[in-house]
Amino acid sequence: MSEPENKPPVEVVRTKRLEIVDDEGKVRAVLVTNEEGVASLSVFDQSERVRASLGAGEIPEQGSGLSVFDTNGKPRAVVGVDNDPNKGCALMLLDADGKQRASVGFQADGQAGLRFSSGQKDRAIGMAAENDGNLAFMLLDKGTPMVGLRLAEGDSNELSSDLALMNKDGHAGVVVSGGSSSDPHLRFVDRRHKVRGFFGLGVGGEPRLCLADEEGNPIVRQSAFDRMLAERGLVYQALFIGALLFAVVVGSSWIAGTASASFYSLPAALITVVVLAALVCLLIVVHRG
User: Fold this and answer.
1) Distance from CA of residue 53 to its chain's centroid?
2) Are residues 47 and 133 in the same domain?
3) Which of 165, 189, 221 is the last residue of a domain?
C-alpha cells in the first residue's frame, strides 16, 4: 500500500549512513561519517563505480576536497583546500595514468601559480603571481628552471624585467635585463653566480663592454697587437723594440741628411731621433691606455 502523497515530510532524519538507490536497487550515492569525524559524499554511476567524492573534516594533513574519477576509478580532477585558513588551496587535473598535467593553486604566502606538465617528458611550464605584485614565467626540465622571465620591483620600487637562460643545473648563464629607469644590458654569469661579462648602454647611450675574471675583478681590454706582443714573450718584445729604434735612427738620419746642410746633419739627426722616439712612446702610451 503506497503512502499518501499529501503526507507531511519528516523534518529531521538522523543517521550515520545514508544510501540513495535507483529503481533497480543499485546504490547511486552514499553520505556517511567515519570514526575520525570526516563526512563524505560519494556518487556512483549506473555500474556502481564511484565517479565523485566530497570529503570534509578537521584533520590537518587531509584537508577537505572534491575528487572526480573516470570509469577506471582513477582521479582526473581534484580540488583541495587546507583546513588551516591561512594556508592554500589547489585545483589539479590528471591524465589517465594518474600524472598531474595541470594545476592552479594559491599558497600560504599569497602567491598564485599555474603549472602545465608534459606527458612524455619531465618538463613543465610554470607561472606565478606573487603577493607583492612580482610576476614570473619559467620553463623547467626535471624540476630545474632552464628559462625564466621575471617582472619585479627592486628595493627602490623601480620596475625591471629579466630574461634568464640557464644550464641544466639551474645556474644562470645569460641574463638580459631592462627596466623603467635602467638601460638594457646583457650579463654573462658563471656557475658560481659571478658576473663574468657585461654589455650594455652607458648614461649617454654609448655601448659598454666589461669583462671580469673568476674573482670578479675587471679584465683590462687589449688590442690584437697588444695580445700578440704579450703572447710572444720578452725576447720577441725586445727584438721588436730594437728593430723599431733602428728603423727610427736610420730614417731620421736619412731625413736629416737630405733636409740639412752637412755641418748640421749630425745634430739634426739626433734631434729627429729624439722627437720621433718621443712620438712613438706617446702613441704606445695612448694606445695602451
Assistant:
1) 38
2) no
3) 221
47-50: Cβ within 8 A, 24+ apart: 47/71, 49/73
CATH assignment at residue 103: 3.90.930.1
Q: Which residue has the cell 587531509?
A: 62
CA distance 105 to 178: 29
Helices and strands (H and E) in the chain: how many? 3, 17
Which amino acid, residue 71? Answer: T
| Residue 191 DSSP symbol | T
* Per-residue pLDDT tens digits for 143-176: 899 999 999 987 777 888 999 998 887 777 899 9
Closest among 173, 149, 144 to 162, alpha carbons compared: 149
Report pLDDT for 80: 93
Identify whether residues 208 and 190 lie together within a single domain: yes
Look up the pTM and report it. Answer: 0.66
The DSSP call for residue 256 is H
Residue 261 lies in a domain: yes
Q: Quick one: 75 and 90 in the same domain?
A: yes
DSSP conformational letter for 219: P
Print the domain residue range for 241: 225-288
Q: Are residues 154 and 192 in the same domain?
A: yes
Give the integer Cα–Cα distance in Å for 37 and 23.
31
Q: Is residue 267 part of a domain?
A: yes
Q: Do 201 and 254 belong to one domain?
A: no
Burial of 164 (0-12, 13-18, 19+ CB in 10 A): buried
Around 231, how many Cα atoms within 13 Å sit in the side-chain half-sphere? 7
Neighbouring CB atoms inside 10 A of 142's CB total 10
Q: Are strands 50-56 and 64-69 parallel, antiparallel or unpaired?
A: antiparallel
90-125 pLDDT, tens digit per residue, is 999 999 999 999 999 998 888 999 999 998 899 999
Q: Which of 56, 75, 108 is the last residue of a domain?
A: 108
